[in-house]
Amino acid sequence: MFGARRSHGSGGTGDGGPGRRRAGRPSSERPPGSLLGVRSLAGQVFLLQAVLVLLLVVAAVAALLVQAGSSGTQEARNRSVAVAEAFAASPGLPEALRSQDPTEVLQPLAERARQRTGVDFVVVTDTDGIRYTHPEPDRIGRRFVGTIEPALEGKVVTEEIVGTIGPLVQAVVPVTDSDGTVIGLVSAGITVDKVSSGVQDQLPLLFGASAAALLLSMAGTAVIGRRLLRQTHGLGPAELARMYEHHDAVLHAVREGVLIVGTGGRLVLANDEARRLLDLPPDAEGRHVPELGLDQRTTRLLTSGRPAVDEAHMVGDRMVVVNQQPTDRYGGPPGSVATFRDSTELRVLSKSAEAARRRLKLLYDAGTGIGTTLDMVRTAEELAKAAVPRFADFVTVDLADAVLRGDEPADGAVGLRRVAAAGIRDVPAFHPTGELIDFRPATPQARGYRSGHAVLESELTTAEGWRAQDPERARDILAEGVHSLVTVPLQARGIVLGTATFWRSEKPEPFDDDDLSLAEELVARAAAAVDNARRYTREHAMAATLQRSLLPRALPGQGALEVAHRYLPAQSGVGGDWFDVIPLSGARVALVVGDVVGHGLHAAATMGRLRTAVHNFSALDLPPDEIIGHLDELVSRSDRGFDGEEGEPDDATGMMGATCLYAIYDPVARTCVIARAGHPPLALVHPDGSVEFPDTPVGAPLGLGGPPYETAEIDLAEGSRLVLYTDGLIEDRGRDIDVGLALLREALAHAGTASPEEMCDVVTGALLIERPRDDVALLVARTRALAVDRTAVWDVPSEPAAVAEVRAGVARRLADWELEELGFTTELILSELVTNAIRHATGPVGVRLLRLERSLICEVSDTSNTSPHLRRAAATDEGGRGLFLVAQLSERWGTRYTGSGKIIWAEQPLPPR
Question: Helix or strand or coil: residue 51?
């Protein structure tokens, strides 16, 4: 039969199309013996079917007759019981029995039930057997004929009696109330002849059906014969048997499992290989696929009948490749055929490939996720998080203290500080982060740290060395289920920086050699990042130290300004922002803020060079625009330096670009002269709290050259506040300079009349919510004015006799100031300076005396641009000793140039009070 199904399923159309003609021979070439064989087979089938039909008819008639004689009584018993029980259980019957006239209610119901069920009577009685209903109304009210005592006890009674209508079977069923009390009886009865006659009435129908079956079998035999001719292509029984044997041999010999599933998901055929691969039960054929115990995925595929090509399925511990096609695609019977091929070895290779893929994915993620910042602790945390939970259940990272400071660790010491830990849950038994751990020589961490090689402890329950560190802690760790570890030294450029330890608890398999290699790869990537962070930390510390040494540690004492400052280094790297407060002659003070492009040592060094140059130029008492111009020339000249034969710029020694703002405040004139090179404008807060940014000309940044720098002079009321800053205060990646200036204006207005210190806090709190990405320098100075009574001015005629008048006037003023102690030296200094001005200069000569809090300043101005020079006079020289005498008597002296000439000044300290 299987051969016939295979032929039909593969033969294309039902009329023996070209798809299967080569299975037999063409119709014109069929031998007569084959056709006769098929026809003879059809005739034999017809004869067999006719005999079977006749035998079945005879058996059925005999069975009916025997049944009519032997089971009539049983049928009558069953029917009477069923009718009596159904009527007794009908709703409302207890209420009818308790009514005043039960007969009126129950008689029509009992008659209707008798007629519909075909029984001879349905009788309802009370518990005494008095009838309420009967087919013959004259018998109502009489006693029931039959046994009722068992029914009164709640039982069903059946009995055979001979009544007026002949032999019958009656049943008595109790009617119970809701509490189980018997309140009445129902009896139903039927004669045996009525039941038997029903069976006899079926005999004509049986004979007619038998004749029809015989006719149908004849027609079916003819149809089957023609179909056999089409499906077997004229093959005789021997050929069909041989084809079946060949197909059966192929199915059993092929090394692929074959399953044929029919309609309704029922298994039609399974060969030996399919039984072996799928572990099918012996009685699998004929059962539904869901009953075969296969996995859900395979069951869904087989029952769906959908096409499948090389689908991989897990069947037990085997990987099976499944192909499935429907059998009715080319006119075959409905269902599907599936083939199974064992690919367990492919699964092993696939598992290895999958494991390799997971390792590569882990290494890739670690490569992109470790070392995102130049922070050693953050890098260690990234290593721990990358390994949990894909590789280990817990990870701890320990680094030497020297490494955390940016230095190389000392040889031999195994004192490591825990900087990172990660795990699938919290385990208190592990050392907490931040703790310094002195690992003992026997521990895997110490062995790996000293040797520079990874250490594997696959089974911690039997390992002894790791317990030596802390036996109690080791017991607690084991109690948490930790059973295996790998410790790998963090090593870069031959320097061991620390160790990383990987622990397993939830993963049942211990670490092996493959895991050891993977751990080394992970740690190697992290070690390079940690070493980069260490070197960055060292460089940053050096740059920060250099920067701190170059910035002013304390502001110099002066009486013209009340100054407060803030310096905030960048989030990463050291920048080149700087500020300065430089006392000048004549009680003036210079305020300087600058910003060097870039970060790092080079920027800090450039800042130091520029700051030194500013101090040097300021010592010459040059105006702001000239100082800015000299700085620009210095940077340009430095950048034009060359290194090498090809004339390449030497970036290592050349200065970087910079901006600068230089302002000089004069407390006597109460003015401020400002010049700036590419720097943000100065902010001015008036004594009433109003804020403005004075319009001051801005030149190109230092080193770019261009037109000469210009200055702006503004008048200041006493108590005004000058706010100087670098661009890091107002600029950010998400905020341009206009927004920053608006925020600065708002913050300064909010500060109102606050002191410089309070104003610094308000500004930084409003504009620097987070640590800045660029350096920030902020300088706030509140102006003071020199009182009129602390200044004395004289115009001196160009006559030698005028010197005596000046000396007398100075003596009187010193007496008013209670500085008579300085009278002699001051008169001597002024005499020398005024005499030199009258002798060597032209035009008017002016004298100004300034009394400050800590010093007394004498100034002599003239219209000459020639500056005197201090020299040592020879023993025979008649002159040349006056300026030397001035230098000896004063604390400081110097010359500054003005638009109309020059001023020579000398400063003396006030005597202590």
Answer: helix
User: For 89-134, how does the pLDDT look when each residue is reduced to its tens digit (9 = 90+)?
Assistant: 888 888 888 888 888 888 888 888 888 888 888 889 988 889 889 8
Cβ-contact 869, 840 below 8 angstroms: no
Cα distances (Å, whole numbers) of residue 867 to 163, 236, 838, 840: 165, 140, 14, 10
Sign of CA dihedral 128, 129, 130, 133: positive
The number of C-alpha atoms within 13 Å of 578 and in the hemisphere containing its C-beta is 34
User: Alpha-carbon distance 892 to 909, whole Å?
Assistant: 9
Phi, psi (5° rounding) for residue 150? Answer: -60, -35
Helix (H) or strand (E) holding 546: helix 513-550
Give every strand in the sheet of 495-504, ordered side by side: 436-438, 415-423, 394-400, 495-504, 484-492, 455-457
Q: Which of 56, 368, 90 is nearest to 217 (CA)?
A: 56
d(CA 122, CA 357): 85
Condensed to tens digits (0 to 9), the pLDDT of residues 603-655 reads 878 888 898 999 999 988 889 999 999 999 988 887 665 444 444 444 445 56
Both tokens assigned to 794: 């004289």
Contacts of 837 (CB under 8 A, 6+ apart): 796, 845, 860, 861, 862, 864, 904
Distance CA 438, CA 87 (A): 96
Q: Is there a contact between 830 and 807 (Cβ–Cβ < 8 Å)?
A: yes
Tally helices (H) and strands (E) across the chain. 24, 33
Name which of 228, 243, 199 is nearest 72 in CA terms: 199
* 597, burial (CB in 10 Å: exposed 0-12, middle 13-18, buried 19+): middle
Q: How many residues are recorded in the chain?
A: 913
3-class DSSP assignment, residue 828: helix
Pick from 701, 700, 754, 768: nearest CA to 723: 754
359: its two tokens: 């390792």
Beta strand 671-677 with 698-699 is parallel
Q: Is the dihedral of CA 119, 123, 127, 131 positive or negative?
A: negative
Q: CA gyration radius for the chain?
A: 59
| Amino acid making up residue 384 | A
Yes or no: say if 154 and 176 are a contact pair by the CB < 8 Å rule.
Answer: yes
Measured over all CA atoms, what is the biggest interatomic distance in the chain, rounded to whole angstroms?
186
The three-point CA angle 489-493-497 to 5° equals 35
Q: How far is it, in rounded angstroms, from Cα 400 to Cα 237?
A: 92
Closest CA to 838 of 795, 898, 900, 886: 795
